[in-house]
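Ticket #4471: structure output looks truncated?

Reporter: J.K.
Steps to reproduce: submitted the chain below (90 residues) through the standard prediction queue, then opened the result file.
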Amino acid sequence: MRIFLFLVLMSQLVLSCAVQMGNIVYSIIWLLILFFISFFVAGFCAGFYIIVHPLSVCLPPLTSLAELLLQGVQFPHYCADKMMSGAPLG
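Returned output as attached by the reporter:
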């Protein structure tokens, strides 16, 4: 119930910002991706990032994996940025 109310409030916020945004349909799609996908991806990546990042100092080949996991941790920010700009998927 709380999630539903939060989504309603967020959709109203998105609709109120429609003047400065691109396409409202894309913003709603990015909002759904933000809540239903990106937080789970970030949580999964954060756990492994905490383990891999210190090890990348000792094992340099893990640096690229640590950077990839950091991008996963930053995925909610990416989705929120795309949501506010109304950018198309892709």
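Triage note (M.O.): checked the attachment and the full token line is present. The mean pLDDT is 88.
Status: closed, working as intended.
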